[in-house]
């Protein structure tokens, strides 16, 4: 590498592991997942950091350095090096490999060197670049990199997560530490580095160390004059000279690693947008991060005018004739997309096999509207994604959608559950060969107010073109889905016999809604808000000041400084204040102590704030008839379970007395006399018994014994009469844990017992119920060989990660292989029951009607005089939905409110 090659080089050097860990702790692991159980918070945070730094610093070259497992030469010098570090969080495992995949897609070079650390790679490249006339920027939280800073080398030191950086120039280093950068390693040798488990001189801090360095020039000078240094600090230095000399040896940067010298090896611009999009899809990253990718990563000119999306044919409105020209006289299928555009209002993308267009509904005259209504409500097949949502949108805008609508999202979901999205653009991209740029950000109101008519018209044209393109792409997507269904006939069976009929039922249930008692809702809201206020007052009284209990930052001060409680797990902003951490902390405290009482009120505040949020949300969504209309989604859960949204009526908390009271506001509506609820008893365990053919479980269900009591008596080797509540609770947790793929570690956390006890408990369970053990083992191995799991109806879930080289992904896939057949079969059975109940009630022309499905429970609104008929229909429909080797048990409750109808 010659100076002429590097004189204008500006290389960005990133400490990969250090920044990945900072990203991991800066973002919640449970908020970022690829949808298959692999946490991606470190990957997302790292990618965001890279985007920000590349955009702001405009480097010409980039390299990311990573550590290798197994230690380095420094561990041979000092076997306690980096000892005492916390165990790597399980959620972090696997994310470094994913970061490397992102870097490969972005064309960013990453490096590792056997027996050396990332610091050494960075030191070699930084000093080489500076020596040959270039400039280096080091992104690292490791303070050892400070020794590299000079006029050509700047350190960007993160001070808040991975987004806020401090520029460490020679002047900044001297201002902060009182010494030039080249002497920082001397200072670190004296002070030590806790993160690396390198103890320094006791009683000597950075200020004292800096004073000595200034007086004696450097560390050798200090050591040479150690006998002259007075006081306790001087004696402490003399007592720990070996530690100081070892520290200096350990923190010395290696500057001569054998690394590629060709600048082209690190040049920015080799990224591949298609490959990046594919990786981001795998990681389930959204549009925002895609929009922010700097053009320089892909060798594009950032200053060149942005290329507008090609404008598809957009209908020039000239009344009904224009629509006739588009739709033609044939009966071929139409494809449809819909959107509410901030500039263009309600818009349609519509396409035949030969033409595509976009229509602004507000611009249609009455004749054109009639033509459109006839086409969409007629016998032609209409291909779209999410038929219920599109039908609802069309109705709001005054147009029908016929019963010939074909839901491509539902078809894609059945074939491949668990995708990031099933919207029209996702289907068009994956199955129709289309390509869409990331969606533009929604403009601020102030931006819209300043737009000229010409600018606005241009934006509308681009939005229209995108809608038309998405509609057009649905045609090849539909053909591809048909081809795949032909190859996998099981999918056609699930669609025709279960999902499509159920979709019609769910749309009907959405239209019915469920009634609420608005007066009871208002009273409950007032009461809950009073509980929240009380929790605030009592918590504040304990510490003698008002505390914002919703502020993690304030809570950290109150908990760990004011109350001086033991610290919880470390996070980027201090110490965790999440529910699990605070519950663990409270268990360590003496009941009646100020810390214990404060935490009690804090947890009470959180619980009641959450419940208040539910109540406030319900108050916003009821219609003029005081009915709430939830939307049931068939494509949200990969297991096939239904999801409830806007509002979610499946997650109303029922574990606490206050949570159960929310169900009191749901009532039988006007003209109906009661609500009836019916649910399956222990359906997952019954399916487990059926699939595993375990004689013990089958015996328990056939004899009608208390399952968990029966299991506990055998696991603990006692008579059924001798089973105590703790035994029953533990075996119940094991039973359901196995059905949900829970590991021994997860079981230990749930039961708050040691992992060893959890393992013994699980092993004891397997010893008594060998059929369950054998079934679980064989289900994973069978799925690994076939590539998929199956429910009792033959619904498949493909799991390519079962053979992944990424351990975290592989283990997550194994858990899915354990629980999908059980949870998926439970979902299939309740869906069959819903179809049977709805069909019987319609067939007998009853006024009673099914309103809700909440996992294993159905809620029915019963008309006067129909209770016994409805009870019989519901019980028979659920009981006979599917024949297992053990009986299905259905419980029924009756009451004027949802809570009263519980049983």
TrEMBL record:
It comes from the Bacteria. It catalyses: DNA(n) + a 2'-deoxyribonucleoside 5'-triphosphate = DNA(n+1) + diphosphate. Residues 659-866 form the DNA-directed DNA polymerase family A palm domain. Residues 9-269 form the 5'-3' exonuclease domain. Residues 433-456 are annotated as: Disordered. Keywords: DNA damage, DNA repair, DNA replication, DNA-binding, DNA-directed DNA polymerase, Exonuclease, Hydrolase, Nuclease, Nucleotidyltransferase, Transferase. It is an enzyme of class 2 (transferase). InterPro entries: 5-3_exonucl_a-hlix_arch_N (IPR020046), 5-3_exonuclease (IPR002421), 5-3_exonuclease_C_sf (IPR036279), DNA-dir_DNA_pol_A_palm_dom (IPR001098), DNA/RNA_pol_sf (IPR043502), DNA_polI_H3TH (IPR020045), DNA_polymerase_1 (IPR018320), DNA_polymerase_A (IPR002298). GO terms for molecular function: DNA-directed DNA polymerase activity. In addition to polymerase activity, this DNA polymerase exhibits 5'-3' exonuclease activity. This is DNA polymerase I. The gene is polA.
């Amino acid at each position: 590498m010659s100076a002429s090659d590097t004189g204008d080089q500006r290389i960005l050097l990133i400490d990969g592991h250090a920044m990945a860990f900072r990203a991991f702790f800066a973002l919640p692991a449970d908020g970022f997942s690829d949808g298959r159980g692999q946490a991606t918070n470190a990957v997302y945070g790292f990618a965001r950091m890279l985007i920000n730094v590349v955009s702001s610093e405009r480097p010409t070259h980039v390299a990311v350095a990573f550590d290798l497992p197994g230690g380095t030469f420094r561990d041979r010098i000092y076997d306690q090096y980096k000892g005492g570090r916390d165990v790597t969080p399980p959620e972090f495992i696997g994310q470094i490999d994913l970061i490397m995949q992102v870097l490969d897609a972005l064309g960013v070079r990453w490096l590792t060197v056997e027996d050396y650390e990332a610091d050494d790679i960075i030191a070699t490249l930084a000093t080489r670049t500076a020596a040959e006339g270039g400039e280096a920027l080091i992104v690292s939280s490791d303070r050892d990199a400070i020794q590299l800073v000079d006029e050509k080398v700047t350190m960007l030191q993160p001070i808040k997560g991975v987004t806020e950086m401090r520029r460490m120039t020679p002047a900044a280093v001297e201002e902060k530490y009182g010494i030039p950068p080249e002497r920082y390693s001397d200072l670190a040798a004296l002070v030590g580095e806790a993160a690396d488990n390198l103890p320094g001189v006791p009683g000597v801090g950075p200020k004292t160390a800096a004073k000595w360095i200034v007086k004696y020039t450097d560390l050798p000078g200090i050591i040479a004059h150690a006998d002259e240094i007075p006081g306790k600090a001087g004696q402490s230095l003399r007592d720990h000279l070996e530690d100081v000399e070892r520290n200096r040896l350990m923190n010395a940067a290696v500057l001569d690693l054998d690394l590629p010298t060709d600048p082209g090896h690190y040049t920015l611009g080799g990224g591949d947008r298609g490959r990046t999009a594919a990786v981001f899809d795998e990681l389930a990253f959204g549009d925002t991060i895609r929009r922010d990718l700097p053009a320089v990563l892909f060798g594009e000119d950032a200053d060149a005018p942005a290329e507008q999306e090609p404008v598809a044919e957009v209908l020039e409105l000239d009344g009904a004739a224009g629509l006739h020209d588009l739709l033609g006289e044939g009966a071929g299928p139409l494809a449809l997309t819909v959107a509410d555009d901030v500039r263009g209002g309600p818009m349609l993308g519509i396409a035949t096999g030969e033409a595509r267009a976009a229509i602004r509904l507000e611009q249609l005259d009455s004749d054109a509207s009639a033509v459109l209504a006839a086409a969409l409500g007629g016998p032609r097949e209409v291909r779209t994604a999410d038929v219920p949502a599109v039908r609802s949108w069309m109705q709001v805008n005054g147009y029908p959608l016929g019963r010939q609508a074909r839901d491509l999202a539902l078809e894609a979901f059945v074939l491949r559950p668990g995708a990031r999205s099933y919207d029209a653009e996702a289907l068009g991209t994956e199955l129709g060969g289309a390509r869409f740029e990331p969606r533009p950000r929604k403009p601020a109101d102030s931006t819209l107010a300043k737009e000229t008519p010409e600018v606005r018209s241009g934006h509308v044209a681009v939005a229209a073109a995108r809608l038309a393109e998405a509609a057009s792409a649905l045609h090849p997507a539909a053909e591809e889905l048909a081809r795949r269904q032909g190859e996998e006939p099981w999918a056609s069976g699930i669609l025709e016999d279960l999902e499509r009929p159920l979709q019609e039922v769910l749309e009907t249930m959405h239209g019915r809604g469920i009634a609420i008692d608005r007066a009871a809702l208002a009273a409950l809201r007032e009461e809950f808000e009073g509980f929240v206020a009380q929790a605030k007052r009592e918590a504040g009284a304990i510490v003698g000041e008002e505390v914002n209990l919703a502020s993690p930052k304030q809570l950290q001060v109150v908990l760990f400084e004011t109350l001086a409680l033991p610290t919880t797990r470390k996070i980027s902003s201090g110490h965790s204040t999440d529910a699990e951490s605070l519950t663990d902390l409270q268990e360590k405290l003496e009941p009646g102590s100020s810390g214990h009482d404060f935490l009690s009120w804090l947890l009470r505040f959180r619980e009641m704030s959450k419940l208040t949020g539910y109540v406030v949300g319900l108050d916003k969504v009821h219609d003029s008839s005081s009915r709430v209309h939830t939307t049931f989604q068939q494509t949200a859960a990969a297991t096939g379970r239904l999801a409830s949204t806007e509002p979610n009526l499946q997650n109303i908390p029922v574990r606490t007395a206050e949570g159960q009271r929310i169900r009191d506001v749901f009532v039988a509506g006007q003209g109906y006399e009661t609500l009836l609820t019916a649910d399956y008893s222990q359906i997952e365990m019954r399916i487990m018994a059926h699939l595993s053919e375990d004689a013990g479980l089958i015996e328990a269900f056939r004899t009608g014994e208390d399952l968990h009591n029966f299991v506990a008596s055998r696991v603990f080797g006692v008579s059924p009469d001798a089973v105590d509540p703790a035994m029953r609770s533990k075996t119940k947790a094991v039973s359901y844990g196995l059905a949900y793929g829970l590991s021994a570690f997860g079981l230990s956390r749930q039961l708050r017992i040691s992992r060893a006890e959890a393992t013994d408990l699980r092993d004891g369970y397997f010893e008594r119920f060998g059929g369950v053990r054998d079934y679980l083992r064989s289900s994973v191995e069978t799925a690994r060989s076939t590539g998929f799991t199956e429910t009792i109806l033959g619904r498949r879930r493909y799991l390519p990660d079962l053979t992944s080289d990424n351990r975290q992904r592989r283990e997550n896939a194994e858990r899915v292989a354990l629980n999908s057949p059980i949870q998926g079969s439970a979902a299939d059975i309740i869906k069959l029951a819903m179809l049977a109940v709805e069909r019987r009630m319609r067939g007998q022309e009853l006024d009673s009607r099914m309103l809700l499905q909440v996992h294993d429970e159905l809620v029915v609104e019963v008309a006067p005089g129909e209770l016994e008929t409805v009870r019989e229909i519901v019980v028979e429909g659920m009981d006979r939905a599917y024949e297992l080797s053990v009986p299905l048990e259905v419980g029924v409750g009756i009451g004027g409110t949802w809570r009263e109808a519980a049983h």
